Amino acid sequence: MEQMQTAVTRFTKTPFVKKKEFNQQVARWSFFTMAILMIIPLMAIIGYLVYHAAPSLNLDFLLDVPKRGMREGGIWSALIGTIYLVFISLAVAAPIGILAAIYLNEYAKDNWFNRIINLAVINLAGVPSIVHALFGLGAFVYAAQLGYSVLSASLTLAIMTLPVIIASTREALSSVPVSFREACWNVGATRWQTIRAVVLPNSISGILTGVILQVSRAAGETAPIMFTGAVFYKAVKRGDFFPYELTDQCMALSMHLYTVTTQVPNIKESVSYATAVVLLGVVLLVNASAISLRVWMRNRKKW
Amino acid sequence: MDTNVTTDSLEYGVLTKDLNLWYGKFQALKSVSMSVKKGQITSLIGPSGCGKTTLLRCFNRINERFSYVRTAGEIVILGKNIYDSDVSLIELRKNVGMVFQRPNPLPISVYENVVFGLKVHTPRKQLKKSVLDETVEKSLNEVGLWDDLKDRLKTKATSLQLEQQQKLCIARLLPLKPDIILMDEPCSALDVEGTHAIEELMFTLRNKYTIIIVTHNMSQARRASDECVFMLLGELIEHSRTEELFINPKNPKTAEYIEGRYG
């Protein structure tokens, strides 16, 4: 009978267990709260912007060019300018960055020279954008005599995004298991054959995602393009897809947002909010497509 | 030039002479000299960290991708010192293939895995579909996978069972007609039946290929090898016929190890 008694009280909570469980709950909920707090600013920003932008937001706003000193019309010239800058800068930065990352990850041995390259990449990523702007002004606008142009601005943006593309590409490459590489090397494949047959096919989704995520950075930066090629106003035809030459100056969304907010008196408040919404929308759209690309490609590969 | 080529050295698959290897400052192999007979299965045994895997990885110089690895001494494979300056790592690895602890088929189809080596070593224009097809059938037959997989050549190799994957990894080496096959604990990821199947396969491959296998499993060494090498702390302690090493070890350290006093 006594045996039964002790058996019944087995596995119950002791005061110490209760204390531990309490601590665990405290920890869990504090972490959860912080995670939730993350969402609030994003929601607040989007909600606030859309609410204030609503009066100006329509298809015409996207497709029309600014009129009457930005006070009427739309933002087509800035939107297409941003698309130009982003595409050209990534067209320059992506190949250089990806090839450099392949070298650093697949070929480079651990010696002083490659450590210097690594250090350079890391430091380049930490350079403030205004410094990039000044560099772009000196190097591309003046020294290379490209002038204030789409090309100068794109190259400046390219230099700025390059280190991050290198870092994300390296990460994608190193996520391919070493055992695959060993398998190739052990049948006598060269490094390049290994990269082409195994490493790239299995890391391309990660590489592309990394590149696409840089779109948002290139689209959002103001200082570098302001110094090197973006202007307040440029006459463009409504809905024209090829309004700028490489040597022209151009408008851009981030710059336009600055202009309509601070430089134009007596403007409808909703215009600047609508510009912000378009900028944000472009960035979110691109990021979302990057994420869906990654998910789609990840589901296809299996090892 | 090739002063090492003598009739004597040709009768061995692998000869090492006074081989030393350092990982940075740590010396992992100490003056290892051994001779591995052609067409036999030689097992390397010893406790963890004794250098047996390091030694195995010297035979196709796969160790060297780490810049902190230094070697001194000679490894003569089929009469040629593989540390000679005119040795191409590509050609060496074509002849000395390796099977790993965890099966590592490439994440492509079974068919592509088998012909991968051929494709790597043949200019694209000389590749004929018929030759490739034939190679796949022959290699998979040799490892006993053809009947199981002939209708699934297009499936991804990484989705096969582990035992099949490991056999496929062996099959992948065969189209290159290697002389030596190195196996680094090839059964440690497999269950009893898988282990048995791989050992059976090793017996069928013996004679045609020189097989060197690293194993933690002493009963496997005993079952599945002709000669056995016992290593300890980077040194070669004893090398003899397997039955002799296990029944009548000459060195007391060997005796202690096979009796399980340390490991």
Would you write up a description of this structure?
The complex is a heterodimer of chains A (303) and B (263). Chain A is mainly α and 303 residues long. Chain A has helices at residues 2-8, 15-53, 59-63, 76-107, 112-125, 129-143, 150-174, 178-185, 191-220, 223-228, 253-262, 269-300; strands at residues 66-67, 72-73. In chain A, a hairpin with a 4-residue loop joins strand 1 and strand 2 (72-73). The longest helix of chain A is centred in the N-terminal third of the chain and has 39 residues, at 15-53. In chain B, the strands form two sheets. A six-stranded mixed sheet of chain B has the order 6-7-8-3-9-10, with helices on both faces. Chain B is globular. By secondary structure, chain B is of the alpha/beta class. The N and C termini of chain B lie far apart (43 Å). Chain B contains eleven helices and ten strands. Chain B has a single domain (7-258), classed as 3-Layer(aba) Sandwich (Rossmann fold), CATH 3.40.50. Mean pLDDT of chain B is 86; it is low at 1-6. In chain B, helix 7 (162-173) packs parallel to helix 8 (192-205). Chain B is 36% helix and 25% strand. The interface between A and B is medium-sized, with 22 and 31 residues.
Quick rundown:
The complex is a heterodimer of chains A (303) and B (263). With 303 residues, chain A is an all-alpha fold.
Task: Give me some keywords for this one.
heterodimer; A: 303 residues; mainly alpha; MetI-like fold; two-stranded antiparallel sheet; 2 strands; 74% helix; globular; B: 263 residues; alpha/beta; Rossmann fold; six-stranded mixed sheet; four-stranded antiparallel sheet; 11 helices; 36% helix; disordered N terminus
